[in-house]
Amino acid sequence: MIQNSSISAEQKTIERLVRFVSISLIFILLTRTPVDADLWWHLRTGQEMIAQGRILLTDIFSYTRPGVPWVNAFWVSEIFLSALYSLGRYFALTIFVSGTGAATFYLLSRRLNGNPFLNAFVLILSAVTAAPIWGPRPQILSFFIVALLDDWLACNRPRWWLPLLFAFWANLHGGWIWGFLLLAAHLAGMLVNLAMLPDERTALWKEIKNLLLWLVISAFAIGLNPNGLAIWKLPFQQVNVSLEIQEWLSPDFHGIDFHPFLWMLFLLIVASPYAAKPTAWGQLFKVLGFAYLTFVAQRNIAVFAIVTVPLLADWLNAALRTFQTEKRIEPSRSLPLPLRTFINAVIGFSLITAALGNAFLASQPEKVDENYPVTAIEWIKNNQPTGPLFNSYNWGGYLLWTLPEYPVFIDGRADMYDAELIQQWQDVVAGGEKAIAILDEWQVNLVLLEPNWSVVETLQANGWQVTYEDKQAIILIRK
Questions:
Q1: Residue 251 gets which letter from DSSP?
Q2: Which residues contact 20 (CB under 8 A, 6 or more apart)?
Q3: Higher pLDDT among residues 1 and 218, named by residue
């Protein structure tokens, strides 16, 4: 009995070590230089709300939509991000991104049983799958809440917390819609069980009615935010106006970034014959639903990766058990406890040092600056040309942050600008007579864009003067 207890203790130590190593690697994997296009308008908004002592619900940053109502579903996140930046600059933002990733996948790891090395593989593959969309934005908080909600549903915890969760979520990020889709998939799985498990129908039906009641209350709890129930329009507005924005496009499988998504799908297919019975219908519907949404828009890929982990790990562990032989390799003699403790401490210290060092290097200001037209913006600050300014869509948020004295034509708040203005921006950068007419309509005198847009030649042909140009940006002024 003493020997079995020792082996069990060693197995638990190995499981904890493997989990620690895998989560540390995920922390490193999801470390990002804070260069996301939307980060900057979130920071500027948070800065303004702290300075003014009020929640911003109308636009004050552009000259094309001044005073227009803005459904700001991010105000808590924006204040948090702005405060975080004030405390630790880019390093704090970088730690926030990777730390949220580590916390999300740690939460998932607690649900996994079976071979610790196989579970670690699934976790890391999931993190690699989510990596293309994981960045310094409020949406990563939604990813964590999705993992939390899925965990609570799987553990069948009391439902009264659902309205509280959704009320908080509605002030944090618009990703609360993922939560309702998750609940819908969970309910669909319960309905299938209702039909297939007649002996459990009474208990299942009671649980379904209970969850539906709290789901309805949660739908109203979403209205407990400064925007009221108008926030329910947000997910559908974004779908309508954002089809030309990168994150709303389908994944491009010609690049390697989105191949891990396919690997997870293929592994599910290969492992499915070994799945335990009865089928976990709710979890399967979550996986299929978010896989579908990922094919429609790549921004859903992280949610797919998160909800797929428990099912994929279960199925792969079932397949592993099927192919394992009865013979087991006898465990070798254990290392002395002091030596094991020393080795584990060295591994832990090395990983923590590597993770923090990597975050420090990724958050250096020059790493951020190389992604933006810093020199061109400095030229505008020094020379103060007359606006209004027509700007690159990708730089709109960054200009709000670094060049606040010039209101922008457009930035990443696609739902507020609507389809008409986004189309105007596209017509301008495409060049031609329509571009000149739109610039004249808005009385634009200053243009800051990437040099490769067709409108650059159109403007020069119509007498606009190039006053600054490098490989990254070009500035044109109306004569």
A1: P
A2: 348, 351
A3: 218
In 3-state terms, what secondary structure has residue 191?
Answer: helix
Do 419 and 240 touch, CB atoms closer than 8 A? yes
Kindly state the DSSP code that residue 158 receives in the 8-state scheme. Answer: -
Confidence (pTM): 0.92
281-296 helix and 301-323 helix, angle to the nearest 10 degrees: 130
Spatial contact of 91 and 359, defined as CB atoms under 8 Å apart: yes
* CA gap 34, 18 in Å, rounded: 29
Q: Read off the DSSP letter of residue 330.
A: P
Confidence category of residue 341, pLDDT binned at 50, 70, 90: confident
What are the CA-CA distances from residue 461 to residues 160, 431, 438, 457, 465 (Å)? 65, 11, 16, 6, 10
| pLDDT > 80? residue 338 | no
Contact 450, 474 (CB under 8 A): yes
Residue type, 277: K
Per-residue pLDDT for 195 more than 70? yes
Residue indicated by tokens 């921006």: 425
User: 333 pLDDT band (50/70/90 cuts)?
Assistant: low
Q: Which residue has the tokens 């507005």?
A: 237
β-strand 389-391 against 465-469: which pairing, if any?
Answer: unpaired
Task: For the chain, state the CA radius of gyration.
Answer: 26
* CA pair distance 204, 201, nearest whole angstrom: 5
Please name the residues in contact with 130: beta carbons below 8 A apart, sequence gap of 6 or more: 30, 101, 143, 301, 302, 305, 306
Secondary structure element (H or E) that encloses residue 467, with its range: strand 465-469
Category of 156 on φ-ψ map: left (φ > 0), alpha (ψ -120 to 50) or beta: left
Query: CA 101 from chain center: how many Å?
Result: 9
Q: Which residues contact 285 (CB under 8 A, 6 or more apart)?
A: 185, 186, 188, 189
What element of type H or E holds 127? Answer: helix 116-130
Question: What token pair was written down for 192?
Answer: 């299938």
Q: In the block, which residue shows the tokens 């014959």?
A: 273
User: How many Å apart are CA 353 and CA 357, to the nearest integer?
Assistant: 6
Query: Does residue 239 register a pLDDT over 50?
Result: no
Q: Convert the pLDDT of each residue in 100-147 to its tens digit.
A: 999 999 999 999 999 999 999 999 999 999 999 999 999 999 999 999
3-state secondary structure of 449: strand
Question: Measuring CA to CA, how many Å separate 92 from each of 95, 105, 136?
Answer: 5, 20, 11
